[in-house]
Amino acid sequence: MIGNGKGNGRSDGKKGRSGRSYRGKAGLTRQPKKMRGRKVSSQRWLARQLNDPFVAEAKSRGFRSRAALKLEQIDDRFRLFQPGMAIVDLGCAPGGWMQVASMRTRLGQGLARLVGIDLLETEIILDADIFVGDIMDNAMLVRVREAVGGAADGVLSDLAAATTGHRLTDHLRTTALLEAALDFALEILKKDGFFLAKCFRGGAERSVLDVMKRNFTTVRHVKPTASRQESVESYVLATGFHGDGLSNIGEKLALNDDDAGSEKTDDGRGFRPI
Ligand SMILES: C[S@@+](CC[C@H](N)C(=O)[O-])C[C@H]1O[C@@H](n2cnc3c(N)ncnc32)[C@H](O)[C@@H]1O
Fold it and tell me: Is residue 60 part of a domain?
């Protein structure tokens, strides 16, 4: 039953057919249709989607993903994109970040370059190059270099592995993707370039952050308001690429962090300190 926008009659705390109330902690007021037969986790996901204002906004503005709003918020704060830039988007499907990057670099005017990579197909983005494949495949780096015309001004990574529900496993998988994305960025960024990547906080990401601090002037954590507060997801933004660290990430990760650079925690408008 879809709610009436006034509380859906659940304020009495009664539970639905699934045995769970969708009010309570998350303050949700609408329930998805056809709950029967769905796993509880899927019911909760659906209910959350229905009640999420960012889902509604992304849809109404024609974005392919809710994640597009996160990138917009980060860019509104840090002004990463400039017209004419060359940008690489790792894990680009379904294409929400590509839409934002395309608009903000004015891809249509002909000077900018935008390249996306994903294991999954991504619907076309006008004037962008999109490759289906694994970012860990060495051949991909060669293809992307060709497509951006050498080096990139910015590398984006919203890479995420399918979650298992086991927090530590999910954290380690996402951290492995963060490491692979950083490795890719170190190989393709121009001097003063930036790297923005999803990062599930949980401890294992420390050594990857240390490598960033050696190779960029500033490394900060950012959590846009469109990133769910209850989620361990955050983003790490590294700016001012100088590449003074070692060229092989395996060696970098083996180092201790004695000479690590600065790491800032941003508390600017629209961002929560972590
Ligand atoms: C959260 S989604 C990205 C959403 C995207 N930023 C948007 O706004 O539409 C994460 C993506 O990472 C991709 N991915 C995960 N591992 C990958 C890998 N090794 N190589 C390429 N893509 C990968 C997944 O297929 C998935 O589409």
Answer: no
